[in-house]
Amino acid sequence: MNADPLRSPAARAVRHVAALSSGPALDPGLRVTLNFHPDRRTADGRAILDAMAEDGAYRSQFATGTSNGGLTAHPGGDRWLWESRIFGGVYDTADADERPVYGALDFRRKPLGAAPRFGSAFFRLSAAALARTTFCYPDSWLSPTAFGVATAMPLIGPAVADSASGRTDALDDYVEAQVHGPLLLAGDVEALVLDPCFRGTGVEAAARRLPCPLAWHQGVTLGVGELVRHREFRGPEIVDLGLRLAVDGRLDPRILGDAARSGGHDPQQLKKVWHLLARFGAPA
Questions:
Q1: Residue 253 burial (CB < 10 Å; 0-12/13-18/19+)?
Q2: Strand, helix or coil at 20?
């Protein structure tokens, strides 16, 4: 680890993106949220919240080997190449634990967090975390050319315009955030926000062992009647899988988590079922 914090990869990455950014300062009342599925397991088999309780930190895909998007965090992989391009190569030789973690700017103040396509729960970060966060629009996998930092944020307007015109779907209308430097649950996180379907479960028990406050959002559920109306969204085979997984005629995050941990389903297909729930579900 570099002894000089000003020369750390994190500090150099923020300065690099700041040099590419222009526009007004970000509203300090906005927050970055990190969406994830709270009932999944890490690559070494630990429950994800138990692993966070032991580590006291939220770690990048490079460190955990898990993701709710694509698994390309390895030398030469897509995420490695995106980070090399966006951050001027400062992370090319960095340790996995030094790399940024990903979230989104919650400028719409969504009940399920800024980017629910990545999970039903989210960490809401502190205001102080904004100073070491960089932003891009659209998502980094789309090779964005527009960037921002807390002191120069030109990205909200284009995101709003694309959403209003229908150029982006409601699951894809987020401004991506990359948080640099260690993300500690004690201090950097204002709250872990869970779906109420996890009340009274092991997920709630594990969440209460974390060194950050616990809160609840309104919850989301999708009835099979609504599900079958969206066969075109992720394909009819995904709707059919959702129908097989439904319990008492509905889907919720806990039902999908049980299916994921069973090992009996393609994780990529389950991810698409979640997209249907996150996109078309209603408050529980």
A1: buried
A2: coil
Task: State the Cα–Cα distance between residues 32 and 15, nearest whole angstrom.
Answer: 19
266: amino acid identity, one letter? D
Res. 43 pLDDT band, cuts 50 70 90: confident
The tokens for 200 are 């009274």
Which residues touch 118 (CB under 8 Å, ≥6 apart)?
A: 35, 36, 68, 69
d(CA 169, CA 74): 29
3-class secondary structure for 29-63? CCCEEEEECCCCECCCCCEHHHHHHHHCEECCHHH
Please tell me whether the overall predicted TM-score, pTM, comes out greater than 0.70 for this model.
Answer: yes
Tens digits of per-residue pLDDT, 222-265?
A: 999 999 999 999 999 999 999 999 999 999 999 999 999 999 99
Evaluate the CA torsion angle 112, 113, 116, 118 in order and state its sign. negative
